[in-house]
Specification:
115 residues, mainly alpha, two-stranded antiparallel ribbon, zinc ion transmembrane transporter activity, membrane, cell membrane
Length: 115
């Protein structure tokens, strides 16, 4: 679409797969490994830092799912989601959706900076 035509299904699948791999590697190398490194000096047991990181990831996933459920927001393709918010303009719905998307990464970076 950037060059005037719609990419083929295979090209779109390849692009989405590449983007997913980049996001997974970014979260692994920028968040998970540093979290393990930060937790290791606090505990003698080798399994405890990994358990803390796993529980933190699960809690983060739950927080995002809860925000997605409880906050009104709008997606480009599927439209409005969450509780009814007739008084909110579309721009605020998009801002809330972007906040739901970016909140976990910002929180992780903030915690990392405090360490």
């Amino acid at each position: 679409m950037l060059f005037g035509r719609i990419p083929s299904r295979a090209t779109r699948d390849l692009s989405l797969g590449f983007a997913a791999g980049v996001m997974l590697s970014a979260s692994f190398f920028s968040l998970i490994i540093p979290a393990l490194d930060a937790a290791e000096p606090m505990f003698e047991n080798g399994a405890m830092p990994a358990a803390i990181v796993c529980v933190s990831i699960i809690l983060g996933m739950g927080a995002v799912a809860l925000m997605n459920e409880k906050l009104p927001h709008e997606h480009f393709k599927t439209g409005r989601e969450g509780p009814e918010a007739a008084s909110l303009r579309r721009v605020w719905l998009f801002i809330i959706a972007i906040t739901i998307h970016n909140f976990p990464e910002g929180l992780a970076v903030g915690v990392r900076q405090c360490h």
